[in-house]
Amino acid sequence: MFSITGLLTISGILFVAGAAALITRRNAVAALMGVELMLNAANLNFVAGWRYFWPERLDAHVAVLLVITVAAAEAAVGLAIILNLYRKFGTVDLEQIRLMRG
Amino acid sequence: MNVEYLAIAKLFLPEIVLTVGALLLLGIDLCLGKRDTRRALVLLGAVISLAAACVALLQWDWRPAEAQYVRQAAVTSAVQRMAPAVGRDALTHAARISERDARAVTTAYKAARHDSLVESAATPPADGAPVMGIAPYDAGLSSPSFSAWWLFTADNFALIFKAIFALALALALLLSTRFPVARYRGEFAALLMFAAVGLMVMVGSLDLVGIFLGLELASLCCYALAAWHKQDARSAEAGTKYLLLGSLASAIFIYGASLFFVEYGSTHLHVLAHGAAQSPLTLVALLMVLVSFLFKVAGAPFHLWAPDVYQGAPTAMVAFLSTAGKAAGFAVLVRVLSAHGFQAFSEKWLLLFIGVAALSILIGNLVAIHQNNVKRLLAYSGVAQAGYVLIGLVAMADPAGGTLLNEALPLTAVIFYLAAYMVMNIGAFAVVGIVGRESGGEELSAFAGLRARAPVLAFAFTLLLLSLGGIPLLSGFVGKWYLFLAGVYQGQYLLVLIGTTMSVVSMYYYLLVIKQMYILPAADGAQPIRVGALAAAGLAAITLVTVAIGIYPGPLYTLAQAAAKSLMP
Amino acid sequence: MTLVDTVISRGNIESTMTNQAISIAVFFGLGLLFWMVALAASHLVRPRRPSAAKEATYECGTVPVGRAWYQVHVRYYIYALLFVLFDVEVAFLYPWAAIFRRLDGFTLFLLIDVLIFLLILVFGLVYAWRKGALEWE
Question: Which pLDDT score is estimated for B36?
């Protein structure tokens, strides 16, 4: 049913999808969602590694908890920053936000 | 009980000082309400960070290097005995570590108790008790101080960086005394201090997850700080760009760490180093970890965020980020690579580093020439400086033997340069901040005629820029000298050639700024620039130190060498 | 032997995993079946006399106003943040509670530890409150 290969593949797909969203999406909030996907891909790796290879090592649980916390904090700070961006520019379209060049 | 606290506190003294200080600052800010207390608060923050720097230096381990190896050797031998259990096939062979190995851990810990950092006694595992895993709580050593000792360190290498961060913080806070937004001043100072705490956790951590924790603490504070100027759209843009690209780097890092966990069942650096098998998964994981930190230090081609963030973000925060943040990134790179070095991959990461170093030096210096904004110019110059430091990192690897760090010079040069760079770059940003505030912009033209408007400021800026460019008798020259020397000793002639040539090129754009200040006349109606007393004191200290290190580099070199040696087995 | 021990005992990983997957599938199938049967039965049994009031979207008895797609006011955002903050905090308290009694000799240490942790969070909450971040405009 499940296998370590499958889980690692899923996490790889999640990671690549998140990175693609982060890089290509024009909406800043969607890009931020990409970050969450990437962090959760890492979480999936930790859990899969614990489940299939290292059932005695509880490091994975600690790591997953910390990553979840960090993801929450990042979403909070990120949304605040994007809100600020919206107030300044009236849009969260990253293509239109180009004051600085060079 | 108290011993436990003591042992843990000793690992985190500067961090504790800073955290308590920052909370205190916020509390005072809250109690004062709307009264204008901006200078006093920031001054308090600077004093606290100076205290943290003193604490870090007071913790300095003055014992001879051999005595300091006790901990390192103990951990190494313990992990080496467990090495057969490290690797994926451990599951089928011997996932459970034998009692003998568990005793090795206990012996290691007991030996390390002579290390001044750990004093509490841990209960050794009872005979016959099943012992699983490597992590201390599995080994029956469930004392909290043991866990802390296993995951964090306060060796000289970490301490010198903690001192660098605390000093950078103090200078950045002094620089922000006349920061335009009065209402949130306490929060600005507190966020900077929390960022410094994050960087300190990063350099003191021996586990990738601990590094991630520190990295995120620092990054989150910096994202908020970058978007600080609520009235300035460029600041909002800088914050967003830094947020998106910075979290991309963090996510890549933790994904690499999770791949390490799949392979080794741990993210502890010593375990990774001893289990370094030549599997593709490990290679990918290692590259991900390294690339994310190359991103943090803004080495080309991972530097694209730097110019925009530097230009839009508040100058005080940029001064801190471009020095302390960069130093922390390099510290972690060194820490990861020096954990006995991933020998199996030394050619591969060496190649990556050589490429990034060459690209950084070339792109940083060549693009900086065309910049019209001094903050952007300093950003590209920072990319180039990261390239110079990378020469030192490349020199850490012995191309023939595939081993690391059999000589102290490269790492000493890296630490020396990062310390010197911290001082001079913060000074440069201090001047840019003052001029930008008084003349309303950081364009090159804002510096025109600075000689007449603020002669002392112009003189200090000239010295600092010349030091960044690497003129003899200033600290930048000495630092580059050591880096290039280390590169030559390791046979990286091409890289050193690029570095020296581009140093000459860099003088061109530094001189462009100096030309603005000394030769061109001031714009019509330009006012004389007033410099606050605190900022003036800080700037004077910075300039003096830059010159002092340039003339007499001995003490700093000794300190850097001691820090470098504490990493070597 | 607790459930966790059963789950992580190595020989059984694959089989327990498959068993769990099967039970999840069974629940999913039952849920689907229940939903379909209930809807189909009511469709067959009930009389059909549509009117405007009956066609309207059901919103707990009140009259629906506006469209289904609208922007949530940004002030909810701060509450969402606070929720996330304390939500994640609880995630840390569970493992703490799980090992609290197991670590003999360190219970006081653990207690003070978690108090420091909570104190910092409460400080943050008080700070946000006093700064007026919780005011409803």
Answer: 65
User: Are residues B557 and B147 in contact, defined by beta-carbon separation less than 8 angstroms?
Assistant: no
For the record, the structure tokens of B26 come out as: 């916020």
* Average pLDDT over every residue of B356-378: 94
Dihedral angle of Cα C124, C125, C131, C134, to the nearest 10 degrees: 150
Please give the single-letter amino acid code of residue A52. Answer: Y
- Furthest-apart CA pair in chain B: how many Å? 86
Whether B30 has its CB under 8 Å from any CB of chain C: the answer is yes
* SS3 assignment for B347-401: HHHHHHHHHHHHHHHHHHHHHHCCCCEHHHHHHHHHHHHHHHHHHHHHHHECCCC
Give the distance between the most distant pair of CA atoms in chain C.
73
CB contact under 8 A, A59 and B265: yes
The strand pairing partners of B207, in sequence order, are B268
Torsion sign, CA atoms B245, B250, B254, B260: positive
Most confident of A50-54, B106-110, B305-309: B305-309
- The secondary structure of B109-172, three-state, reads HHHHCCCCCCCCCCCCCCCCCCCCCCCCCCCCCCCHHHHHHHHECCCHHHHHHHHHHHHHHHHH
Partner-chain contact B4 C108, CB within 8 Å: no
Cβ contact B30–C106 (<8 Å) = no
Q: What is residue B99's predicted lDDT score, i.e. its pLDDT?
A: 47
Our measurement of the distance from residue B30's CA atom to the centroid of its chain's CA atoms, rounded to an integer in Å, reads 31
Largest CA distance in chain A: 53
Query: For residue C120, what is the nearest residue in chain B, using CA coordinates?
Result: B23
- The whole-angstrom separation of Cα B315 and Cα B321 is 10
B134 vs A contacts (CB less than 8 Å): 57
Token pair, residue B197, equals 């705490």
> Mean pLDDT, to the nearest integer, of B55-72?
77
Residue type for B205, please?
A: S
Q: Are B17 and B169 in contact (CB under 8 A)?
A: no
pLDDT over threshold 80, residue B103: no
Q: pTM above 0.90?
A: no
Task: Tell which residue, B120, B122, B136, has the closest CA to residue B78.
Answer: B136
Does residue B121 carry a pLDDT above 60?
no
Interchain contact, C123 vs B5, CB within 8 Å? no
With H, G, I as helix, E, B as strand and everything else as coil, classify residue B230.
coil
The CB density around residue B513, as the number of other CB atoms within 10 Å, is 21
User: Which has the closest alpha carbon to B462: B450, B477, B452?
Assistant: B450
Residue boundaries of the structural domains of chain B: 65-151, 156-565
From the list C81, C133, A36, A80, the residue with the least C-alpha distance to B224 is A80
Burial of B554 (0-12, 13-18, 19+ CB in 10 A): exposed
Helices (H), B397-492: 409-439, 450-453, 455-469, 475-489
Q: Which CATH class is domain A4-96?
A: mainly alpha
Whether pLDDT at B3 is above 60: yes
What does the buried/exposed string (b/e) look like for B467-502 if buried means 16 or more CB atoms within 10 Å of the residue's CB? bbbbbeebbbbbbbbbbbbbbeebebeebbebbeeb
- Residue A14 main-chain phi, psi, to 5 deg: -60, -45
Over the stretch A28-84, which tens digit does the pLDDT of each residue have?
999 999 999 999 999 999 999 888 887 777 789 989 999 999 999 999 999 999 989
A45 with B312: Cβ contact below 8 A: no
Each residue of C41-73: pLDDT tens digit? 998 998 888 887 777 777 777 777 777 777 777
Report the gap between the CA of A2 and the closest CA in chain B (Å).
Answer: 16
**Spatial distance between the Cα atoms of A34 and B528, rounded to a whole number of angstroms:** 49
Is omega for the bond preceding B410 within 30 degrees of 0, making it cis? no
